[in-house]
Specification:
The chain is mainly α. The protein has one domain: HPT domain (Four Helix Bundle (Hemerythrin (Met), subunit A)). It has five helices and no strands. The chain is elongated and about 40 Å long. It starts with a helix and ends with a helix.
Amino acid sequence: MLNLNNLQQITGNNQKLMESLLSQFLAITDDDLKKLYQAILHVNHTEVASLAHRIKGASATVGADQLASIAAELESKAKAGLGNYLTLYNQLTENYKALQSAVADL
């Protein structure tokens, strides 16, 4: 669910800094998921791709590898203009909720 190796390297294994970065990540990703849902509703392929890319990068940085993988798939689909993004969006939100719980348990 959450691979902390990269985050530990970035922060020099500083627990407080890791917690702060994870908290910021969750807040930003929560906002991005709301924007992503609106972009999906409006079938805005460019915005879907952009937000998925942003979520992918942030997720990879903090070690949320599964979330990054789903976002990458959504980004790819949006760049191709394939539409029907709701299944992947639902996977993103389910994974995000599980990630929130994992972070809370740290």
